């Protein structure tokens, strides 16, 4: 009998992706003890990306850096062969803000640059950066300073961190940039197509999620416009209108202009890095999911990426979620042959969050007879 591939994202607030995968796999084993179950936690480039890589066998690398407010923290990135996988959320994400207090004007990606510098020092020949969940709107200026560059005002003074200060940016000193920064490909895993500026840009669309008032959004957008001009003057390349340049507060911009960094689809990149195509071979069914299946799921989230890849291989996909707000037509169009939710079997939300692993195990057992063949299992 063919295998079942369990490839969920995290259930935010209740269980990380490896825990979800373990719970579902245990339930499948309860229903069919001889079934081969492959566990492959996934992510979309945001929080949990490194955890997914580590679960797939990548090696952890720990480094001291600074968070979005400059507070020291310890970060883990993943390494396999010559490739380093870094998660922005771990070092400059909303979850890294002290006391979860927003800092829309001065949050920085400097620590992300520090982590990239560590990977370069350690000999990485490719760096992939998952950039979901950022707390910053600094156009990637902090990333460049973390790699050794200096962002200066008209008087030659270094600017303080954050997006608002970029309103005074005049030039970039690259003389102290990390010596390997131009040599090593840097790839940003990204599933949004927002440009840097304007009504659909970094500040306007994502600034409010990071605590920016309407006045601060306007201030940040103007500052990013100044920064884009400085980047174009320094590197001879204007990236402000490139789709995706506005992702994560414009984080890719500095590296795209100065270092030639590139963008790749987030979910597809992560699936490739964790070995999803190989895990899919000979699978009869794929089980994926996340905390809530909603409209955001349809726009670059991990479950839809998993469904797309599985359907291309002719393998049905079942989704498991904490809750689901999508209609039947939307779910079918996304490629799901069935959907199970924790909310449907939990007596209340508190229980759903607190007892998620046990409830997911129940769901794992329930879906086996519905979505798999009944012929005798074969032990591998």
Order of helices and strands: EHEHEEEHHEHEEEHHHEHHEHEHEHH
Please summarize the sheet with the most strands: 6 strands, mixed
Give the proportion of residues in helices: 25-40%
- The CATH topology label of the largest domain is Glycerate kinase, domain 2
CATH architecture of the largest domain: Alpha-Beta Complex
Gyration radius, in Å: 22 Å
The first-level CATH class of the largest domain is given as Alpha Beta
**Main sheet strand line-up:** 3-4-5-6-9-10
Return the domain count: 2
Please specify the SSE layout and strand pairing:
Layout: E1 3-6, H1 17-31, E2 37-39, H2 49-55, E3 59-66, E4 72-80, E5 83-87, H3 88-92, H4 110-121, E6 126-130, H5 141-146, E7 150-152, E8 171-173, E9 186-189, H6 202-206, H7 214-235, H8 252-259, E10 262-264, H9 266-273, H10 276-280, E11 283-293, H11 302-312, E12 317-324, H12 328-334, E13 338-341, H13 349-354, H14 356-371
Parallel strand pairs: 1-2, 1-11, 5-6, 6-9, 9-10, 11-12, 12-13
Antiparallel strand pairs: 3-4, 4-5, 7-8
Helix pairs in contact: 1-14, 7-8
């Amino acid at each position: 009998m063919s295998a079942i591939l369990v490839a969920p994202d995290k259930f935010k607030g209740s269980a990380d992706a490896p825990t979800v995968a373990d719970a579902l796999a245990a339930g499948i084993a309860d229903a069919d003890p001889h079934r081969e179950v492959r566990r492959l936690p996934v992510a979309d480039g945001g929080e949990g990306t490194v955890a997914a890589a580590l679960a797939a066998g990548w090696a952890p690398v720990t480094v001291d850096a600074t968070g979005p407010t400059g507070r020291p923290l310890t970060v883990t990135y993943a390494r396999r062969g010559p490739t380093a996988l870094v998660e922005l959320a771990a070092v400059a994400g909303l979850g890294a803000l002290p006391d979860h207090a927003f800092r829309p004007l001065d949050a920085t990606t400097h620590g992300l640059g520090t982590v990239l510098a560590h990977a370069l020092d350690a000999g990485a020949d490719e760096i992939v950066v998952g950039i979901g969940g950022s707390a910053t709107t600094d156009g990637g200026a902090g990333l460049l300073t973390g790699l050794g560059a200096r962002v200066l005002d008209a008087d030659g003074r270094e600017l303080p961190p954050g997006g608002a200060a970029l309103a005074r940016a005049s030039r970039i000193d690259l003389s102290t940039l990390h010596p390997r920064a131009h040599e090593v490909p840097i790839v940003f895993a990204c599933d949004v197509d927002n440009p840097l500026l304007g009504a659909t840009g970094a500040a306007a669309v994502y600034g409010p999620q990071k605590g920016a008032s309407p006045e601060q959004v306007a201030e940040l957008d103007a500052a990013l416009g100044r920064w884009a001009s400085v980047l174009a003057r320094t590197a001879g390349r204007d990236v402000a209108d490139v789709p995706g340049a506005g992702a994560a507060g414009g984080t890719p911009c500095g590296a795209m202009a100065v270092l030639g960094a590139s963008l790749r689809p987030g979910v597809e990149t992560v699936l490739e890095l964790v070995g999803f195509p190989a895990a899919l071979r000979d699978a009869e069914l794929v089980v994926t999911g996340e905390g809530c299946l909603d409209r955001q799921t349809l726009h670059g989230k991990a479950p839809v990426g998993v469904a797309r890849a599985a359907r291309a291989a002719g393998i049905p996909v079942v989704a498991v979620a904490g809750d689901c707000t999508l209609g039947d037509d939307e779910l079918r169009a996304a490629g799901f042959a069935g959907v199970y939710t924790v909310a449907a079997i939990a007596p209340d939300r508190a229980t759903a969050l607190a007892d998620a692993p046990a409830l997911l195990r129940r769901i794992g057992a329930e879906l086996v007879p519905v979505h798999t063949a009944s012929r005798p299992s074969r032990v591998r």
